[in-house]
Structure formats: C-alpha cells, structure tokens
Amino acid sequence: MLVVLGLEMVTKGWVLVAPGPEVVTKGWVLVAPAPEVVARSWVLVVPAPEVVARRWVLVVLALEMVAKGWVLVAPAPEVVARSWVLVAPGPEVVARSWVLVAPGPEVVARSWVLVAPGPEVVTKGWVLVVPGPEVVARSWVLVAPVAL
Fold this sequence. Notes:
This protein is α+β, with helices and mostly antiparallel strands. About 30% of the residues lie in helices and about 15% in strands. The chain has one domain (about 1-145).
C-alpha cells in the first residue's frame, strides 16, 4: 500500500513506512519507525502510542482532516490484509464523509474502491484511485499498486 500525502505533510512528521528500499528509489518518502512494523505491512506513523500498541494502522488523508479527527483504520492484521474502512468520530460525521472500502483481496491486489456520498464530494479534489504516476502529479491520491 502506498499513500501519497503531499510534501507539507512529510515536513510535519507524517511519514510512510515500507518493507523495502526499492520503493524509496521510486520517489516515495518512506521511513521505518520500528523493524517489527516494517516486517508486517505498509503502515503510517500514528500520533498516539496507545494506538500503536494495539496495532492499529492509521492513515491521515489531509491536514484539515487530522484536525477534525478523521482517520483510516484497520483494527487487526487480518483486516489489513483484506480491506480498509474509513472511520469517523461520530454518526453525523459519517453522514457527510468519504467511505473508503476495498471489498476483498482481489480488489486490494488491483485497486482501491472509493465510495462517496455524492458527486459533489468528488469535485472537491480528493482522488483515491489507482491509475498511474500522472495522477500523483496532479493531486492527492491513494495508490495501492501492490497487494498487501
């Protein structure tokens, strides 16, 4: 799993962890906070130690989302291998939010499926898809070219 967060996020301490140096050579900014985490899967550094202890994988989609408490979590290793679900702080937030879901392993191997409440949300510049590098150059993207 590869997540492009933007340069400003990289400078503010949000880094991506990868299992191998070959990804680094492709222009991704990757850092490993702990060997045991690297050995397991692609993860992102999380701000809360207690979350790390429970092996939650937190992905921050944007700075403004961090302020509002939006997080992408996988509550257990077996869930990481199968799907991702966007969880929001409360029901009222979920009603106006993006829901990112990968229905099964076969989808994870090929792409991520984004489900949004309406087309008006899509026009706000959030692109979570798996095309190619050209999309990365354009805007925020979530890329999953490798199966977990």
